Amino acid sequence: MDSILENIGKTEFISVCVQDPRLHKEDMWHTYVDYEICLHTNSMCFRKKSSSVRRRYSEFVWLRQCLERNALIMELPKLPPWNPFFNLSNAHHVVQRMKGLKEFLENVLHTPLLLSDSRLHLFLQSELNTKKIEKCALGKTRYTVAEAIQRSHSSYISRLEDKESCDSDYESSSSSGYGVSLETPAQDNSVSFFPGADGHLELCSCLSESIQPPTPELYDDSPSSL
Q1: How far apart are alpha carbons 221 and 86 in whole angstroms?
Q2: What is the chain's Cα-based Rg?
Q3: Distance of CA 32 to CAs 41, 121, 221, Å?
């Protein structure tokens, strides 16, 4: 019995949840929904055993294109299809999309080869946007992939980015004669998509098969739903 419990304890698992859709209104014409991705794992493939980030559909499209470039002839999991009639106010549309996004992540995490892509890890466990993920994966940022993941919720990454931005602005102002301008952070006007009972909608899956450790904006349904 002890040996069985010990083996169960050693079994690698990855639990991924897609939940809590939130509506963001950028301006009068541009509105989009993003989703919370929660990851829990004991796999050595991941630097953090528990994480939570928010991503929108177009970022999933970007991720799949990145994985496709590295997958060679491998057939990649499919995303929920682009829907020209996708309606942000239609709960069924949003639930179906969340289900498709969860299934996509589940299938990706079932594929050991894909787990070696650092952009996947940054997508799932850092708060970097897609442009910064690409730069970080290429080693073009002041912080490493590990730092971006481990310190995603701290001010460390922000300080490094501020320093990088100030250095860039200083070089620009030195040649142009103008001072450094500081932008005011954009205000988050997001609202919960389902304001009912607990305002929470969740789709979860758990992967418990053994996974080998790793070897070492685009298309949304309409301008108003990016």
Answers
A1: 6
A2: 20
A3: 29, 24, 10
Q: 186-199, pLDDT tens digit by residue?
A: 455 666 665 443 44
- Asked whether the beta carbons of 205 and 102 are under 8 A apart, the reply is yes
Mean predicted confidence (pLDDT) in 8-27: 85
Where does 138-207 have alpha helices with state H? 145-150, 156-176
CB 54 within 8 A of CB 37: yes
Tokens of 196: 């009912």
**How many helices and strands, by DSSP H and E, does the chain display?**
7, 5
Q: Rounded distance, CA 24 to CA 89, Å? A: 12
Q: Count Cβ atoms below 10 Å from residue 75 Cβ, excluding itself.
A: 8
Q: What is the rounded CA–CA span in Å between residue 131 and residue 49?
A: 25
Question: What type of residue sits at position 154?
Answer: S
Structure tokens at 158: 């922000």
At 191, is the secondary structure helix, strand, or coil?
Answer: strand
In one-letter notation, the amino acid at residue 71 is A
Q: Which of 32, 58, 61 is nearest to 188 (CA)?
A: 32
Amino acid at 149: I
CB atoms inside a 10 Å sphere around CB 184: 5
Structure tokens, 198: 């607990």
108-129 per-position pLDDT tens digit: 998 988 999 999 999 999 999 9
53 neighbors 124 (Cβ within 8 angstroms)? yes
